[in-house]
Amino acid sequence: MLTAQKPVFRKFYLAFTCAVLLAGTAGTGQAENLPASPTLYGPLGLNTVPSARMDTPGTLRAGVSYADPYAHSWLSFQFAPAFSLSLRQSAEISSLKNSAKRLYPGIDTKIRLIEESRARPEIALGLQSAIGHKRLAAEYIAASKRYGNFDFTAGLGWGRMGSAAHLKNPLSVLSKHFDKDRNFLSENANGPTNWFTGEDIGLFGGLEYHTPWNGLSLKLDYGADNYSAERLTSDYKAPAPWSVGLNYRPAPWANFGIGMQGTNKIMARLSFNGNLEDWPVKNADTSKSKHSVVYYKANIEAGKPADIEILRTHNTPQQLRYALSQTKEKSVSFIPRVLGLRGPQIHMINEHLQSKSAEEIWHETEFEGNTPGQTPTTNRPSWTQRLIKEFRVSLQTKMGISEKEATLLERSSLTAGTQGPSAFGFLNSFASLRLNLSNHLQNIPLLNPAGRSDLRANEHLFAAKRLALDTAFLNATHSFSSNLHTSINAGYLEEMYAGAGGEILYRPYNARWALGAESWLAYKRDPTSPLNLDFKNQHLFSGFINGWYDIPGWDLTAKASLGQYLGHDKGVTLGLQKNFKNGVKLEGFITASNQNEHDLFGGETNTIQGLRLSMPLGNIKYLPQNTNADIFATQFNKNIGQKLENPLPLYDLTAPFSMRHITAHWQDIKE
Length: 671
Hints:
By secondary structure, the protein is mainly β. The protein has ten helices and 33 strands. A 13-stranded mixed beta barrel has the order 21-22-23-24-25-26-27-28-29-30-31-32-33. It has a twelve-stranded antiparallel barrel with strand order 3-4-5-6-7-8-9-11-12-13-14-15. β3 (59-67) and β4 (70-80) form a beta hairpin. The N and C termini lie far apart (64 Å). Residues 1-5, 22-31 and 287-298 have low confidence and may be disordered.
């Protein structure tokens, strides 16, 4: 924008911001229920600029959009009421008929700082390409306020959203660090050292008007992106900073938008959304099937604590209900177990199951934690029973969303396995096969620079093998108490590695936190050998200290791992996991290593990230009851920050007898 225009724009912006802050002081009324829709880049907002709006927790969105010179695709998830995360792929493409010139991946996030009330706006802080390519990187603070059928937004933008340079960066008074120039042409990955930097910032704003026609809204906005990078590298003609568009919501799960950016750019957007909590997928209901839930019943009639082998695909209160129905004893004590690990002793009154509500039963139930470990009773299921009950099928799809030579790299496979014979009450065996169904990894060899090690960089060779042994290992577990657990695994532990390792976990049953440690000696498997059984002359050591914390009010688990990866690089992995009552799980993670790796654009990066979605399909007719569909979106061909996949993580094994799990599913004690 020309310098002479800035004072005029500032006056307009100040007036508009005041309107946003004051709007709605007379009451918001039914406008609080007005639905928000995505921008071109994916986050909720107007046409080209974000708002402070958030989705309902548990909402998953997928969408595509186009406005010259970019086509965007994204997958976003609302982890908590005040936190959302998106994986986005932006392709530089002047016409949808042409192939993309470049791809610019990024992770976008938004955090709500202040919730809207009658007198104050909703305020959120966001980062576009927080981790990703610098071309589209930006940070912003947005304020949104509803008034009747209007939703006003105003904000401050840094980086890409501040390139119009309306004001000086106010953060420069804190440190000269924030004054450093933003280079949108750099091939190095964007990161925390770049956030909120730049000599200047931009001002943006707009409104959305929800018309009387059901599902139709009008969007107007004014942005601060001057497309400086595009104008420097081509003859691109930047559009005017204003835009106008229509959004149509034909159903609660779909949005379609079309509009104009300036007078010379057409933009279009399509997105779909749904809440994972409401998805019809779930585990098979076997709670009423004899012997399917309770394995140990020998001591119930004798008045002693009864061991219950918990099925990992079903919630514990459901299985306690079935256990109580199998005895006429007035008072019963249960010890839940998973693969020999034990939880707290649970004291229950049998007659309360029929006569009292779930809340009343809860107050009458006693939990005895930190009790010494005990040897399980000998009345365990036979290995043939375990073979059937533990048979698991997983349809796995892995997508690479940040590759240079292909818009989307993908591989699909099917794994099937079960638990084999057990011995001594603590030694278990497992095995599974992998059937590779399809892959589009033909470009992977071209992307692998000469001299790079192949920790994970030769995945295309594993994907090319139609049938292979996936896992075959022994597992030994022991609980020193109901709070302290150990596990040792040895054998073919995952598709690419065999080896041996151990884990220890301290997890008080009624605490929000847990601490643990693990270490592994890994041997790289040879994908050219039959069933991938042979090893390469490569043995690696890795080890980590792990911590977990259940965030109160958000129903989220945060995890941090600090240690050494398979490539001898050191670093930290941070993750968030969301578990839904229907069995759906979603996890996002980011890993930062102390070593750099050449990325696909000629620059360097020391981070990798991803999103994993797991859905149970056991309720679908004709499918095995332990069937899952797993979708993993991350980068292929990476060697930094690589971990061996623990086949039986202790945190997951002990989840069924944690207080969080029991309280979340306690209503099932009556259903």
